[in-house]
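Checklist before submission:
- one chain only
- standard amino acids only
- sequence pasted in full

Submission:
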Amino acid sequence: MSSKRIVLTIPLMATLLAMAAAADNAKPVVGTLTCKGKPTVGLIIGSKQTFTCSFNPTGKAPPQMYRGAITKFGLDLGVKGATVLVWTVLGSTGQIPAGALAGKYAGVSADASVGIGAGANALVGGSKNSVVLQPLSVQGQAGVNLAVGVSGLVLQTM
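Returned file contents:
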């Protein structure tokens, strides 16, 4: 299989896996989490990227701010520009108390870019592993990068 075909297949596989996970998990939507990160350089065995995140709950609750860090273990090669990740937040109930997104999340990720690229990251964690972060808008990034591996996200209240 050519490297071009692999680069094009990875985001599609990640998106299909994320969609299957969402269909299998009938949790209510409780809001949207948007995380913005600065440019990074991927290493051979992994990478870490920090984010400033804003959780906008459904209803009238005010936005909540978090610091986030995503760590990828596995193949990660290249240079990426600024990244924006947007997730639909699914909870065990229709509402999530302030600060409840804080915690550790885990999942499988894949992304690829040459110029402007895309990736998908579905994660489970938070308070008692009761929160699912389902990709709403996959990341947009500029640069040359290929990353495949297991992702971990840690969110801390600001």
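Reviewer check: The chain has one domain: 3-154.
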